[in-house]
C-alpha cells in the first residue's frame, strides 16, 4: 500500500497525457469510462459504504443529465453558469431529488429499500414520456456547449479535460467524505444500524443524507454525460442504466474505495471494444459478473487489495506467479468460450438460417477462418480450448494446494 | 432518600397473549449500583429493552430524571443520558475496534451530520478513544476488525461502547457472560471505577459479582419484582430464597 500515492500520481499523469496517446475514438471511450467511473463511485458510497443497495440510481444520473441540458439552454454557457460549471446544476438536482427519494427509501433497509429505489426510478421512467416540457418526448432535449473562460469546448479534447477534471475532483471529494464523521457513520449504518440508534444517532436522517450525497455525485456524472453528447433523452432513465452501475460496481469491488470506479471504467472499455466485434456483449457482461461474484466475491480490486495485504504463505512473488499462471489458463478457456458463443450466435442467427438451402449449410467465417458448421472441427476447437483452459486452472490450483499441504 | 433517577411505575409488557412484565415497580437512586437478578426468562432483558426504548411498555410509566420516557425512540432515550449494553454482543463487526469506539464517542461531541471535518483531526475524540481502549484493555487490538476479537474481547468492547457517550445512567445486560474468572474480576473493577458518579443498573448471573458490586438488588421472577433491598436483606429474604436463590443461598 505504500506505493499507492505513486501509483495514483502515475495514473493521473497518464490520464492527463491521454489525448496525445490514443486515437479520437479511444478518447471518446475514455470520456465514457470516466463518466461510468464517477457514476459507479457515487453508487459505491451508498451501496459499499452505507450498505444500501439501490436498484434505481439511473434516476439521479438522469435528472442530473436533463438539468444540465436545460441549464445549458437557459444560460447559454455564460453569466452565472458558464459551461465548465454546468455539472454543478446536475449535482444540485441530484442532491435535491436524492433528499426526497432518500427520505422515503431509507425508512426501510435491505430488500425493501432496494424495492423502493427501483419503484421510484420506474415511476420517473414511466412519467418521463408524458412530461414533454421537461424530458422533451422521444426526441429528447438537445443543446450546444458554448465557449467559456477562453475555452472553446467544441473539440473532443476540451470535453475530455472537462470530464477528467470533474471526475477527479468528485472522486477526491468522495475520498475526503469517507474520512469525515458522516462518512464514517455510513460504515456504522452498514455494519449495525440498530446499535447506532442506541448510541443516540438518527439513522433515518443519516441514511437520507448519505443517499442524497450519493445522488448528488450521480447527478454530476449525468450532467457530464449530457454535456458530452449535447443532449439528454429519457432512455437515460431506463432500468438497464441502474443495473449496469450495480454490476460494474460489484465487478470492481464495491467495498474498496476505487473498486466501483475501476469496475465502471473497465466494463465500459470492454463494452466499447467489443460492441463493434460482437452482438452479444450483454451476455458477456452477465457471464463476467457471475464469474466474478462466484470466484472473486470481493470484486476485482477488492480481491487484489486483499492479496496484497496478506500474500499468504507463498510470499508476494509466489502469489504473483500462480496468479499469472491462473490468468493465462483462464485466457485459454475464455478464448474457447468466446469462440463457442460467437460461433453459436452466428449459427443460430436468422440471417444464417435464411442462407441454408436444401440441406446445404454454408461455412461460417469466424476469426478470419471459414468453418464448416456440421464438421467436428469448430466444435472440437472451441470445446477443446475451453476444456484445456479449465484443466490448466485445476492443475495450478492442485499444485498450490499440494505445496501448502507440504508446508503445513 | 433523594428522588429516583430512573423509576418504573406499574410497567406491563405483553407480546400478544404472553405477559412478560407484570406490574413492575422499581426506583433506582442516583449514584447507586443496582443489580437485577432472576431466573432465565424472568424478563430481565425485556425490562432493559423497555427502559432503553427498544420496546414501548404496554402500560405504565418509565421516568428518567422525572420525565416519562416510555415509548421514546432508542436514540432519544440515549440523548437523555441513558446508555445500555446488550446481552447478545451488538457491535460493528466489519470495522476496526478503534472505529467502533470512535463511532460511539462521536455522538457525545455532537458529531453526526458533520462532513467538513476529518475524523483524523478530531483530537479530543481520538484521545478519548485511546483512553477507552486502555481501560477495556484492547489497545493492542485497536486496528483489528471487531469481528476478529475473541468473544470476551467483544464483551469488553460492548462495555466500552456503552461508556463512550458518558451517560448518567448505564444499563449493562450480563456484561461478564462468557468471561474467564480473571476477566470477570477485572471487568467488575472496571465497572466499579467507571460508574463512580453515575448510576448503574446491571443484570448479572455471577452472584459473587452481584453481591459485592451492588448497593441494592432487585429480584425479578416471572415479570414481577418480588423484592428489592441491600445484599444482606436479599440474602435473608425468605421469598427470594424460595423463588430464586434456592439451593444457591443454602
Ligand atoms: N420480542 C419478543 N416477543 C415475544 N416474546 C418475547 C420477546 N422477547 C422476549 N420474549 C419472552 O419474554 C421472556 C423473557 O425474556 P428475557 O427478557 O430475555 O428474559 P431474561 O433476560 O430474564 O432471561 C422469555 O420467555 C422470552 O421468550
Ligand atoms: Mg436476558
Offer a concise description of the structure:
Chain A is mostly helical and 408 residues long.
Describe the protein:
- The complex is a heterodimer of chains A (408) and B (250).
- Helix content of chain A is 74%, strand content 2%.
- Chain A is built from 16 helices and four strands.
- In chain A, helix 4 crosses helix 5 (110-127).
- The longest helix of chain A is centred in the C-terminal third of the chain and has 34 residues, at 315-348.
- The model of chain A has no long low-confidence stretch (mean pLDDT 89).
- Chain B has 250 residues and is an alpha/beta fold.
- Chain B has two domains: 1-81 and 169-191 and 198-250, P-loop containing nucleotide triphosphate hydrolases (Rossmann fold, 3-Layer(aba) Sandwich), CATH 3.40.50; 88-166, no CATH class.
- In chain B, the strands form two sheets. Chain B has a six-stranded mixed β-sheet, with helices on both faces.
- Chain B is globular.
- Chains A and B meet through helix 8 and helix 9 of A and helix 2 and helix 3 of B.
- Bound molecules: adenosine-5'-diphosphate and magnesium ion (MG).
Amino acid at each position: 500500500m505504500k506505493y499507492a500515492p505513486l501509483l495514483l500520481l502515475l495514473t493521473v499523469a497518464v490520464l492527463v497525457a491521454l489525448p496525445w496517446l490514443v486515437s479520437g475514438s479511444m478518447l471518446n471511450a475514455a470520456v465514457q469510462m470516466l463518466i461510468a467511473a464517477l457514476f459507479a463511485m457515487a453508487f459505491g458510497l451508498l451501496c459499499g459504504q452505507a450498505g444500501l443497495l439501490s436498484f434505481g440510481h439511473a434516476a439521479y444520473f438522469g435528472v442530473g443529465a436533463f438539468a444540465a441540458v436545460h441549464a445549458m439552454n437557459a444560460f447559454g454557457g455564460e453569466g452565472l453558469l458558464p459551461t465548465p460549471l454546468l455539472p454543478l446544476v446536475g449535482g444540485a438536482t441530484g442532491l435535491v431529488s436524492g433528499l426526497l427519494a432518500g427520505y422515503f427509501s431509507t425508512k426501510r433497509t435491505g430488500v425493501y429499500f432496494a424495492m423502493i429505489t427501483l419503484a421510484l426510478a420506474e415511476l420517473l421512467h414511466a412519467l418521463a414520456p408524458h412530461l414533454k416540457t421537461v424530458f422533451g418526448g422521444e426526441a429528447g432535449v438537445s443543446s450546444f456547449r458554448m465557449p467559456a473562460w477562453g475555452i472553446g469546448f467544441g473539440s473532443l479534447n476540451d470535453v475530455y479535460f472537462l470530464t477528467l477534471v470533474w471526475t477527479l475532483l468528485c472522486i477526491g471529494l468522495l475520498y475526503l467524505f469517507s474520512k469525515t464523521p458522516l462518512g464514517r457513520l455510513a460504515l456504522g449504518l452498514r455494519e449495525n444500524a440498530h446499535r447506532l440508534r442506541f448510541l443516540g444517532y438518527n439513522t433515518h436522517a443519516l441514511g437520507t443524507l448519505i443517499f442524497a450525497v450519493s445522488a448528488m455525485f450521480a447527478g454530476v456524472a449525468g450532467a457530464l454525460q449530457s454535456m458530452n453528447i449535447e443532449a439528454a433523452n429519457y432512455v437515460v432513465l431506463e432500468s438497464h442504466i441502474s443495473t449496469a452501475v450495480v454490476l460494474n460496481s460489484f465487478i470492481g469491488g464495491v467495498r474498496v474505495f476505487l473498486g466501483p470506479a475501476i469496475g465502471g471504467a473497465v466494463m465500459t472499455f470492454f463494452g466499447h471494444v467489443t460492441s463493434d466485434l460482437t452482438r452479444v456483449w450483454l451476455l458477456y457482461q452477465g457471464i463476467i459478473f457471475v464469474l466474478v461474484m462466484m470466484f472473486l466475491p470481493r470484486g476485482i480490486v477488492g480481491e487484489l487489495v486483499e492479496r496484497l495485504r496478506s500474500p499468504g504463505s507463498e510470499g508476494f512473488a509466489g502469489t504473483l506467479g500462480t496468479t499469472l499462471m491462473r490468468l493465462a489458463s483462464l485466457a485459454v478457456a475464455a478464448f474457447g468460450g468466446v469462440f463457442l458463443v460467437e460461433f453459436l450466435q452466428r449459427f443460430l442467427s436468422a440471417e444464417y438460417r435464411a442462407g441454408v438451402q436444401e440441406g446445404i449449410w454454408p461455412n461460417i467465417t469466424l476469426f478470419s477462418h471459414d468453418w464448416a458448421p456440421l464438421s467436428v472441427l469448430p466444435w472440437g476447437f472451441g470445446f477443446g480450448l475451453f476444456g484445456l483452459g479449465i484443466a490448466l486452472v485445476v492443475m495450478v490450483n492442485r499444485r498450490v494446494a499440494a505445496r501448502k499441504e507440504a508446508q503445513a | 432518600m433523594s428522588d429516583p433517577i430512573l423509576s418504573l411505575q406499574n410497567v406491563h409488557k405483553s407480546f400478544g397473549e404472553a405477559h412478560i412484565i407484570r406490574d413492575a415497580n422499581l426506583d433506582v437512586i442516583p449514584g447507586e449500583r443496582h443489580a437485577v437478578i432472576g431466573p432465565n426468562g424472568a424478563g430481565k432483558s425485556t425490562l432493559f429493552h423497555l427502559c432503553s426504548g427498544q420496546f414501548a411498555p404496554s402500560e405504565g410509566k418509565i421516568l428518567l430524571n422525572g420525565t416519562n420516557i416510555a415509548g421514546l425512540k432508542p436514540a432519544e432515550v440515549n440523548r437523555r443520558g441513558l446508555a445500555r449494553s446488550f446481552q447478545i454482543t451488538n457491535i460493528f463487526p466489519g470495522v476496526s475496534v478503534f472505529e467502533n469506539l470512535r463511532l460511539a464517542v462521536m455522538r457525545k461531541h455532537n458529531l453526526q451530520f458533520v462532513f467538513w471535518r476529518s475524523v483524523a483531526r478530531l483530537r479530543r475524540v481520538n484521545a478519548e478513544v485511546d483512553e477507552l481502549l486502555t481501560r477495556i484493555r484492547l489497545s493492542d487490538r485497536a486496528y483489528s476488525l471487531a469481528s476478529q476479537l475473541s468473544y470476551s474481547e467483544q464483551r469488553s468492547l460492548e462495555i466500552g461502547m456503552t461508556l463512550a457517550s458518558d451517560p448518567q445512567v448505564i444499563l449493562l445486560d450480563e456484561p461478564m457472560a462468557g468471561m474467564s474468572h480473571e476477566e470477570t474480576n477485572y471487568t467488575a473493577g472496571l465497572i466499579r471505577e467507571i460508574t463512580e458518579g453515575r448510576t448503574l443498573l446491571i443484570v448479572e448471573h455471577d452472584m459473587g459479582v452481584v453481591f459485592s458490586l451492588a448497593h441494592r438488588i432487585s429480584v425479578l421472577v416471572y415479570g414481577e419484582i418480588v423484592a428489592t433491598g441491600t445484599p444482606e436483606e436479599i440474602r435473608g429474604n425468605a421469598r427470594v430464597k424460595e423463588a430464586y436463590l434456592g439451593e444457591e443461598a443454602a
